[in-house]
Design brief:
Length: 528
């Protein structure tokens, strides 16, 4: 039977100052940002679809990434080598040769340890399972109660545990010696139903072609990055790019997450935007620091500034053997607060991936650098052959969109729309609304003309809305809730002096500007 999910998730009490996740999810559905996939069939666990506003918000996020990472990388800034940063795009298939995933290590290593429950048939990530034990002392021969992180069963299990022990504390399941005869599984009634942890591969597989046998087994990619490594040589041979340079790839990735949860945060199908930046090994640490710092600045530039965003450098013992550094850009989501959840990882991958694919494919993936090596008598260079190092800023677009929505979500009971979204104008799906104050006296025609004008100029970045019905306050409220940054109103004075009112979503303040200045006014604020 297919697992299903409910929308919105059961309400969880928020800590003071933490935004209510159930209200954010309800707004996402009400205004068409996010719908659960297969909604009319009850949903399917780990899969989410985007409604009209969400699809445009995510496109704006993807476009901003594409623009600032590939077309005009780092806003035209120079890299540590003193030159403009150079990047090119690539678009690769979800299904690649299965040996790709052997070389990358995903077949043997992309595993999570799982425990199964024999009573409920539930499956849990071993490292997510916690157990309630007496606060001071041992459980003796009484049962102890397991729960999974932030699942709703936590409170149910906690109540049972408190009934048994009084005050309780929670410890990881891994700290309880096996066999777990006294452990009651997260959703179970009887003790002793949890199995020992077993490894579970997160890649989805399927069959390519008509014959359903092992030889035709293929995988849905768990990351977009590997498609880039496979074409490193093709890109070098087919373009005039020279090291250092980056190759960007965006698209859907798939992971059979054991416990998809927290709305779109951990899904089984999601979208990534990854850049593989190739450089000489000696310069790789400088490039790593450069990308790490730029990525943090970039997320701030589209509206995540403030104390909810941090850059966390991994400790040395968290790094892979080939890596000289990894950092995560992390956002304090309502469901992770007071902690943070990863938005993007910036990893120094050394020459690991190209070397692995070179070994497995037996195709040379090194690079001949004509700017290095000994100086020749003619002043030229002898050249140096090497496998480039790779710095990888790997972002998740669904987590990015979710962070933007959570950050933008604002409650102000004194406003006509007590909930509204302060989305950054660059990513907002509705760029502007144009209203006639009343649906008569020539105002609708002037508003239509202005809307057409704005649509022609900004329509490729988002919606330009018009709406002649209902009170102006109600129309502003609808736009506020959808995150539209500016509303322009055509009124009686417009017909006399060719000015309109512009209302700012965040402050509610209004000013009059000449109607022919509206496109310039909006363009400046949208950054386009
Ligand atoms: N190539 C490196 C790589 O894939 P990752 O940290 O596993 O690294 C990069 O993934 C980003 O992809 C994460 O920071 C996150 O934003 C997003 N991501 C990963 N798993 C996800 C999931 N199950 N649901 C939603 N986003 C996910």
């Amino acid at each position: 039977m297919t697992e299903s999910q409910s929308f919105p998730a059961p309400a969880t009490a928020s800590a003071p100052g933490v935004k209510p996740m159930d209200a954010i999810m309800a707004l996402c559905k009400r205004r068409g940002f996010v719908f659960q996939a297969s909604d009319i069939y009850g949903g399917i666990n780990g899969f989410w679809d985007y409604g009209p506003l969400g699809a445009q918000l995510k496109k704006n996020l993807r476009d901003a990434w594409w623009q600032d990472m590939i077309m005009n990388p780092c806003w035209g800034r120079k890299g540590p080598n003193g030159e403009r940063v150079r990047c090119v795009p690539l678009e690769t298939c979800i299904i690649q040769h299965p040996r790709t995933w052997e070389a990358s290590g995903h077949v043997s290593g992309f595993n999570d340890p799982m425990v199964d429950c024999k009573e409920t048939k539930g499956r849990y990530r071993y490292d997510h399972v916690m157990v309630y034990v007496p606060a001071g002392g041992e459980a003796g021969d009484k049962p102890v109660f397991a729960y999974v992180g932030d699942q709703p069963s936590e409170s149910k299990q906690k109540k049972k545990a408190e009934k048994t022990f009084g005050a309780v504390r929670s410890v990881p399941l891994s700290s309880i010696p096996q066999p777990w005869a006294r452990v009651i599984g997260p959703d179970a009634e009887k003790p002793g139903t949890l199995t020992e942890p077993r490894m579970f591969n997160l890649m989805f597989d399927t069959i390519s072609g008509a014959i359903r046998d092992e030889a035709n087994k293929v995988y849905l990619r768990p990351e977009t990055a590997q498609g880039v490594f496979l074409h490193f040589k093709n890109v070098v041979d087919s373009t005039r790019v020279k090291l250092p340079f980056g190759i960007g790839n965006t698209g859907r990735s798939f992971r059979n997450e054991v416990t998809p949860r927290n709305f779109t945060f951990r899904s089984r199908e999601f979208e990534q935007a990854e850049l593989e930046f190739f450089c000489h090994p000696d310069e790789s640490l400088d490039w790593y620091r450069f990308w790490r710092d730029f990525r943090m600045e970039w997320w701030k530039s589209i509206g995540l500034a403030g104390e909810n965003l941090i850059l966390r450098e991994h400790d040395k013992d968290e790094l892979s053997h080939y890596s000289q550094g990894t950092s995560d850009v992390e956002y304090r989501f309502p469901f992770t607060a007071p902690g943070f959840g990863e938005l993007e990882g910036i990893a120094h991958r050394g020459c690991y991936d190209l070397t692995q694919h070179q070994t497995h494919s037996k195709v040379k993936l090194d690079y001949f650098d004509t700017t290095r090596g000994e100086t020749l008598p003619n002043g030229g260079k002898k050249g140096e052959r090497y496998i480039p190092h790779c710095i990888e800023p790997a972002a998740g677009l669904d987590r990015g969109a979710l962070a933007l929505i959570c950050e933008a979500y604002t409650v102000d009971a004194s406003r006509p729309s007590p909930e509204f979204l302060k989305l950054h104008p660059r990513v907002a799906p509705i760029k502007a609304a144009v209203f006639p104050l009343v649906d008569k006296d020539g105002m609708p025609e002037v508003a239509e003309r202005l809307a057409d004008d704005l649509f022609a100029r900004f329509g490729r970045h988002g919606f330009i809305e018009t709406d002649p019905k209902q009170s102006i306050g109600k129309r502003y409220a609808r736009m506020d809730e959808a995150g539209c940054p500016f509303c322009f109103t055509v009124d009686g004075d417009t017909l006399k002096d060719q000015t309109v009112t512009v209302r700012d979503r965040d402050t509610g303040s209004q000013q009059r500007i000449a109607i022919d200045k509206v496109p310039g006014f909006l363009g400046e604020r949208l950054g386009s």
